[in-house]
Design goal:
This protein has about 260 residues and is of the alpha+beta class. Helices cover about 35% and strands about 25% of the residues.
């Protein structure tokens, strides 16, 4: 690991200023991805900006129509939240499936969403629920936030401060996980709203994506049988040492059916 400057700002404007002015600097939230990357010298930023001392960036609040989760809220906090257990249990369940206890007690929801790992769990929930990514500069709809492999719509100096989730009528998440990393080979989040259904897939391709044919079928009839015959095109899906594209395509339908069953349960 190469040496780097270390900054621990106490206010969001200070952190944003450092991020904008220190070229190639990196933010540290939980560090669950960044620290191993530094150790392997896959990244050599000249400066790290630690967000752990910034006030008001953790916690879960419910205003009735939406639930807001602070960006520095740990996975473990999301998993055991009484608010989410009562109002959005699918999100709490998703958080409980991330990594192992060490990862869940250090990793943060904002860090995961900002990193946008193609096999991470939270992006499926953010896109599946049509959440809003709140930053120090603006509010970004989920459909506009995830751009590509490890890419988001965040601009220089922009820091995620919270995620705002609309409360669905029903929601469920199911994933087929890699045994060692517990990342999703395929994970599917399904959410039913009065205006329709959203289906988001993680792990299957270079980034999280929606499945319109499943959304249309489930809007007409919210039951696993409605999507049992839907086949996913393998074009653009990932093939690697863990699974070929055709197997991932098959898993999308299987996990989507299980997510619907979880939502109905």
């Amino acid at each position: 690991m190469k040496s780097f400057a270390y900054h621990q700002p106490s206010q969001i404007p200070e952190a944003a200023g450092l991020l904008a002015t220190l070229e190639d600097s990196k933010l540290v939230a939980g560090g669950m991805t960044l620290i191993p990357t530094l150790k392997q010298r896959l990244a050599t930023p000249p400066a790290l900006i630690d967000l752990s001392k910034l006030p008001g960036l953790s916690g879960i609040t419910d205003d009735g129509a939406t639930i807001t989760v602070g960006a520095m809220t740990r996975h473990a906090e999301v998993a055991r939240s009484a608010v989410l257990a009562a109002r959005l249990p699918a999100l709490a369940m998703l958080a409980s499936l991330i990594g192992d206890p060490a990862v869940r007690n250090r990793g943060t929801i904002g860090g995961s969403v900002a990193n946008n790992d193609p096999a991470a769990d939270y992006p499926a929930a953010v896109l599946g629920l049509g959440a809003t990514v709140v930053t120090n500069m603006r509010e970004i709809p989920a459909d506009e936030f995830f751009v590509g492999l490890f890419e988001t719509a965040l601009q220089p100096g922009e820091i995620i401060t919270a995620l705002r989730f609309p409360v669905p009528l029903k929601a469920g998440y199911s994933k087929f996980k890699a045994p060692a990393s517990r990342y999703a080979l395929v994970g599917v989040f399904v959410a039913q709203f009065a205006e329709g259904v959203r289906v988001a897939v993680t792990g299957a391709g270079p980034g999280v994506f929606r499945v319109p044919p499943m959304e249309q079928a489930l809007t007409q009839h919210f039951d696993a049988s409605a999507i049992a015959a839907i086949k996913i095109d393998t074009e653009g899906l990932t093939s690697d040492i863990h699974a070929e594209a055709d197997y991932r395509a098959h898993l999308v339908t299987v996990m989507a059916k299980r997510a619907v069953d979880a939502a109905l349960a």
